[in-house]
Amino acid sequence: MANITKAFSPLPLYLCQIGSKRSSIKVSCRSSNRWNFQEDLLKKTSYLQTSYNRDGFNSTKFGLLVKDVKYALRTQINNNNNLVLVDTLQRMGIEHHFQQEIQSILQKEYEQNTCFLKYQNHHDISLCFRLLRQEGYHVSADVFKKLKNNDDGTFGLNLNQDVNGLIGLYEASQLGVEGEYILDEIAKFSGDHLNACLANSDEARIIKETLKYPYHKSLSRWKNKSFINNFKGINGWGKNTLKELANMDYFITKEIHQHELAQVFRWWKSLGLAEELKLLRDQPLKWYTWPMAMLTDPKMSQERIELAKCISFVYVIDDIFDVYGTIEELTLFTQAVHRWELSAMMDLPEYMRSLYKALYNTINSIGYNIYKIYGQNPTQNLQNTWAHLCSAFLIEAKWFACGMVPTTDEYLKNGLVSSGVYVALIHLFYILGLGVSSMHLQDISLMSTSIAKILRLWDDLGSAKDENQEGKDGSYVEYYMKENKDSSMELAREHVIKLIEDEWKQLNKEHFCLMSQSTRSFSKASLNSARMVSLMYSYDDKQSLPILQEYIKSMLDGNL
Q1: pTM for the whole thing?
Q2: Has UniProt tagged this entry with the keyword Membrane (predicted)?
């Protein structure tokens, strides 16, 4: 069912036959032990606090540190190291304090064609290329053709000494789009040689992390703890200044997130759905994790809270389709959502009425708040996304109830809707006030399609490894093997991984197109939702998600 939710549910439940209740197999999975840390976290954190200025926080000191870094960026006291400084600020998660200065530096680099002319070594060229592309500048990949040694194809690197050059090339190659074969070649070349370096290099930890979680495809907020702790300065400058600033910013941001989480918990508890529908997942921490990862600017507090409400209903409605409903009941619920009238809940079974009312009131409230702020009421468009989501859930329910095996194309096409990605992004679009911008819903659809494919396919890779699912939860891997009788599990997984890589190229293309000033926040947030996937599906041998838990704890209860 919904990919956003499947990442947290080890064993979805299915309809056994048309018109029957879904099996209650391992119902306890709805409160799986792997998420008991949610309760521990709530006990530890001071999330009820309404002030973010703890005793000991020195706002004057914080302001001076920001001022020092801005001076460094504006005066170029680091000479050719300004790109390294920009990269450092992004990796530390404090770039939001310096957006104007960073944009000025990158604009100058772009106008001067610096990637082609100024930088000589592979690392600097790769860094320039990556930073510019991340911000939407159309830098040609042809810059790398000059580096290639046509005699042996080694790109002129001393493979025994220039590990940083290899890392730079690999990181840059992740920002390619379809048809940029030089970047495909660089990705293979640098990836192969970095793997070869793992056994003998002193930088084995960094190499391993780069290969598994390249920067462009990972959440910087998840990786910044390690980066900050290992930061040694930039040619002797900034070690203490940047570390102290990053630590102070981290604790401010952590308390903001704690405060937001408290509001999400109170809202969820006020609905009373967890008490009324005992089989629903009662896990608002998970739902809040998505907007926390997507919207990284600390100032976007209300936006994160509103988006968390939307995402929570993707989970909850998925549970209704997974656990509670017969086909007849689910059809009635889908019809009621299409009608979008409060009176429609009277046609529903008793257990569905509170959920329908909560969805109706919450989405209408979000729409009205957007109208008050931006002068445009998007409720009709928001309602339409919920209707389409329920229709996609119903199609899957009927497949499983009848024992039908869809084709891979049918499965993936419906999965793009049932993933819940488009629902989240269309709400984000209006929450950010973009309904009055020049951005079109078609742009959201293109971005959503790529993210939903990445999510769905990654989910199915994880499901394919989950022996507990016993093949009951339909997956692309399963259906691909049925369509291709000669394919092994290994070949099927390789095929899916290739599809994911291709979709990242398409997502990069859409990201570059949406990096104008007005749509930058939406594009970056959307990209972060795709980056979240690698954390969501980093299963261990026990089918738990330790990396995701580590990320959540570090954001809400950790110390640098």
Answers
A1: 0.89
A2: no
